[in-house]
Design goal:
four-stranded antiparallel β-sheet; 2% helix; mainly beta; 32% strand; Neuraminidase
């Protein structure tokens, strides 16, 4: 693994985009569990209008032709953050928005709840700070959250794990660096409970829910548990691009170290492919350069296997599992930091990649969500490298066509945002940034599809 002592040099690319030897293999670490314990809304009526002409739609495919508009979805309260926040469905058309930053050294500690059943387009409610929503008996090591991971558990609760600063030359709350802190937000009682800490501080990791209900975290960036040379701002932390992997057992409330990946990477793509193996793709590696490598994890055997390389190196791309069990990756940034539109699909049975149709416009830091019908919706992103001007593009990848369908554009162009499909089938898009010149410009509010995308 590579160790960096100068944050601005090691994460120059990351800081500009505001996200968020690396190839050394490492042995399986000893079990860490011993010391890490903690304390139908409308559906489209039959015969609804046909799509605006999109020749790529096969009328015999049995899937819908989309006909909708984007509508304002209320105004989230106390919005002072755009990117690096987490927006996650809770079930029952509710969505939690926790944390983020303003593109600078301001951590957002607010918690907001979207209720899709309140009025025609839903409404937002301020749940105040994490401290105010903390379950009795729980304590915090800082209340801000950004660049960590959020994973919806099988019972509908959400696990927030780790966190990472935009910069380390400022102090927010008492979290002056990456953190081990983990919280679970209860979907029913709407409170946070402090659970077992991560074995090591971590941020910018990939996360996914395994078939048995455990959560897998891979890669990211780690630091020691305490700073070094605290009087020297540029030498405060030893920064490591991680190849390490940890697994959370929610029933037992404990983390275990698992077999490491072959390559250290942060901000990777991750999803569970057909057959149950986890596929991890791309991300940023040594020198903060996008990777073309991909790996496959067998959670039962606790073993990684290096896959054939993707046709294109990419980071900050979208990744989703298709109805067939194959894995789609699309967009992201290339080695030059420019947005790309290339897309490819991994077949776990053939163990091979197939290049498919590119996105109509290149897009990095777009948001994606799988739809009920198996299509994958991709919204927004930025197109022009380091100028980072957001685009309003919305498309859906249809596996039966191996092609993209052009959908109505967003009301507000945005990147580094979230897209979530509600239980009733509508899609909510939240937050993000509009552009970057000398500072990040926040994308205001939220928007939602006028009808369910079923």
């Amino acid at each position: 693994m590579s160790v960096f002592r100068d944050w601005r040099r090691a994460f120059g690319l990351m800081l500009v985009l505001c996200l968020g030897g690396c190839g050394t293999s490492h042995p399986v670490l000893p079990d860490a569990s011993a010391d890490t314990g903690s304390p139908p809304r409308d559906s489209r009526p039959p015969g609804d209008a046909a799509p605006d002409a999109d020749a790529s739609i096969d009328p015999d495919a049995g899937l819908p032709a989309y006909d909708f508009t984007w509508e304002a979805a209320g105004t989230p309260p106390n919005v002072d953050s755009g990117g690096s926040r987490v927006t996650t469905a809770l079930g029952g058309n509710a969505v939690i928005w926790y944390g983020g930053n303003d593109g600078g050294p301001v951590w957002d500690t607010s918690v907001r709840l979207y209720d899709g059943d309140a009025g025609a387009m839903g409404a937002w409610r301020d749940l105040d700070s994490v401290e105010r929503r903390l379950a009795p008996g729980s304590t915090l090591n800082g209340s801000g959250f950004q660049n960590g991971s959020a994973t919806r558990l099988q019972d509908g609760d959400v696990l927030f794990a780790g966190s990472a600063p935009f910069d380390f030359n400022w102090v927010a709350s008492d979290m002056d660096g990456f953190t081990r802190q983990c919280l679970i937000f209860g979907a029913t009682d709407r409170t946070f409970t402090r659970v077992a800490d991560l074995p090591h501080p971590r941020g910018f990791q990939g996360s996914t829910l395994l078939a048995g209900g455990d959560v897998l975290l891979v890669g990211g960036v780690t630091t020691p548990d305490s700073p070094i040379n605290p009087g020297e701002p540029n030498l405060r932390w030893v920064i490591t691009i991680a190849d390490t992997v940890v697994r959370y057992d929610a029933a037992a409330d404990r983390w275990r170290n698992r077999a490491s990946m072959a390559v250290g990477r942060y901000s990777p793509g991750i999803s569970v492919a057909g057959g149950g193996d986890v596929v991890v793709t791309g991300g940023l590696g040594e020198g903060n350069v996008p990777l073309a490598s991909a790996e496959r994890y067998d959670a039962v055997a606790d073993a990684w296997r290096t896959l054939p390389a993707m046709a294109h190196a990419r980071a900050w791309h979208v990744q989703a599992t298709l109805p067939s069990g194959r894995v789609l990756v699309a967009g992201g940034i290339d080695e030059s930091g420019n947005a790309v539109g290339d897309a490819e699909v991994y077949d776990p049975d053939l163990d091979s990649w197939q290049v498919v149709a590119s996105l109509p416009l290149p897009a990095a830091m777009a948001a994606s969500t799988p739809l009920r019908n198996g299509d994958v919706l991709v919204a927004g992103g930025f197109q022009e490298g380091f100028t980072k001007v957001a685009i309003p593009q919305v498309v859906a990848y249809r596996e039966s066509e191996a092609d993209w369908l052009s959908l109505p554009p967003l009301r507000t162009a945005r990147f580094d945002h979230s897209a979530v499909q509600l239980d009733d089938g509508r899609v909510l898009v939240v937050a993000g940034f509009r552009h970057y010149t000398s500072a990040f410009n926040l994308a205001s509010g939220a928007e939602i599809t006028s009808v369910p995308l079923l």
